[in-house]
Amino acid sequence: MSAKQPILELRNVDKSFGPIDVLHEISIKVRAGEVLCLLGDNGAGKSTLIKTLAGVHQPTRGEFLMDGQPVTFGNPKEAQERGIATVHQFGGTYPLMSVGRNFFMGSEPTKGFGPFKYFDRAKANRIAVEEVQKMGITRITDGDRLVGGLSGGERQSLAIARAVYFGARVLILDEPTAALGVKQAAHVLRIVNEAKKRGLAVIFITHQVMHAMAVGDHFAVLIRGAIAADFRKGEKTREEIADLMAGGESMAELEANIEVYQQTHDGHVPQMSA
Amino acid sequence: MTDQSSFESSPVSPVSRSFSFSSLLRSPASGAFMGFAVVFILFSIFGFGRNFLSVPGVTTWVNYASLVGIIAIPVGFLMISGELDISTGAVLPASTMTVAIVCGHYQMPIMVGIVAALSVGALIGFVNGYIVTHTQVPSFIVTLATLFAVAGLTLYLSIFFINNTNSFYNAPAFAKALLGGKFYGFNSSVFWWAGLVCVFVFFLHYSPKGSWVFALGGDQESARNAGIPVTKLKIGLFMLCSTATAFAGVLQVITFNSATSQANFGLIFNTIISVVVGGVLLTGGFGTVMGIVFGVLTLSIVTQAIGFTEIDRNLSFLIIGVMLLIAVLMNDTFRKLATSWSKPSKK
Ligand SMILES: Nc1ncnc2c1ncn2[C@@H]1O[C@H](COP(=O)(O)OP(=O)(O)OP(=O)(O)O)[C@@H](O)[C@H]1O
Ligand SMILES: [Mg+2]
Predict the structure, then answer these.
(1) How many Cβ atoms sit within 10 Å of the Cβ of residue B117?
(2) Does domain A8-93+167-265 bear CATH number 3.30.360.10?
(3) CB B223 to CB A106 under 8 A?
(4) Structural element, H or E, at residue A110
(5) pTM of the entire structure?
(6) Closest chain A residue to B217, measured at CA
(7) What is the pLDDT of residues A153-195, one digit of tens each?
């Protein structure tokens, strides 16, 4: 298994924004037919890491390899052209545009020749509706509908459907299940497993231990921009993973704290403070 | 990755192509059209006895609309993409003076003057676009700065070259016929505008790049993540706007045989009012070319044709103010209508 060459590999990658160092010495590998789960607390640098893989950011230092060859993606288009499709944590859809145009944004199907190429609306709408329905969103039947009228989860599903459609080799999902209902989240997990079976490499970010355990083959935990743990499926228990996801603090301890608090405060849950 | 052009005939669902009243109502152009219709009917009633519907009555505001319209549509593109360009008020005189100085004073061929004027426009647009995309300064401030900078430079250079802030220029016959002639009372600019409207409609609503313009105004970060060349596209839109303004300047100087270096502040308001009355959302992401066309026509009737009616001339600004307010309120309603609309489910 590990003999296979990774599709994507980072070696000792650093990323800083001016004086702010966000990623330190990151080394990860993703292989075809494998799901890498990126775990970590808020602000750990997960989104920054996947934006680097997606061509949005360029590494400040370190090596970026695709199929063993060094690559640099100057912009997201170049990463997409190499078959890397990403669903970013926020946005990804345009409320005042139709489902069909949203789905094909940046990769529009066209008809006609030369300067008279025009957007093939019928084809775009048909494919978009088909793909979104495959995600379990059967309420969307009209590709002309504006995305602003959809629910948050439906929009998220649209963004995921789009990445699944365009992701030829690598699928990167940044908290794809955050806005989704139980059924739709299950759909996404199934799609991740399907993509894996088809031989895609998947990078999956989540804050939910159950979701991570359901699909992950390989786990990497980020704490303050560095890889704090790197292990394979079955090497750690659910509790250990949960602790790592909480940034190294013990979940059992956190839960115990809450219980003590509730006992001393008439059963009220502590207020989150900044 | 995607099959960019397919030759299979994709099945077109009859529902999505057929005419429907609700889809017409959802379009931001429909509000602009209704506004135009109301103003036109009212002016026809009050102007019946005063030649509003006569040839000079109609051509007055249509001729005016064509010059504003050539500029307003690209201004609208910028607004859809989330930006504002108010430097048009200085680009227009810069263009007219360029033609007058190059062709009038220095006797160069008209083509040289036209190319020079359009290049001046393209350059100003590039500067606008470059600064907006490479700094955090809002486009309103950037183009406000270029508005004054270009206006000042135009005055200075006019004095420097011809020692005058105004100039006259008579274009050769073929150029006059093509760019500044009259057909049944309509200036050549009207036909140029009509042609450009077709090109602009194709660009914004049919070409794949049209989607990108909306995406810029909808969510620029997502557009960048989707691989859209945000910086290039934005600079391109600023250049289109200034070049179109320069072209309007060329048409103007050849039509009226005169050029002035005074900044045209009224043009700034007129283009922006037309665009907003035309149903473009101030916040970007939504709008149509045909809406802007109706916005321009409405504004032109109210400002130019009021003399052909019994309505007091002084009321024209009041009407425009009220219209603008109604338009902004309506635009919000139209947007809500559009987002909540879904095709009636087939039983
Ligand atoms: N463009 C930027 N400029 C400066 N700092 C940034 C930038 N992008 C991210 N950061 C910083 O990098 C750190 C990591 O952010 P990132 O979004 O990668 O976290 P995350 O692990 O995805 O968190 P979450 O779980 O909340 O999504 C944060 O402290 C953030 O402020
Ligand atoms: Mg994140």
Answers:
(1) 27
(2) no
(3) yes
(4) strand A110-111
(5) 0.88
(6) A94
(7) 888 889 989 998 998 899 999 998 887 888 888 888 988 888 8
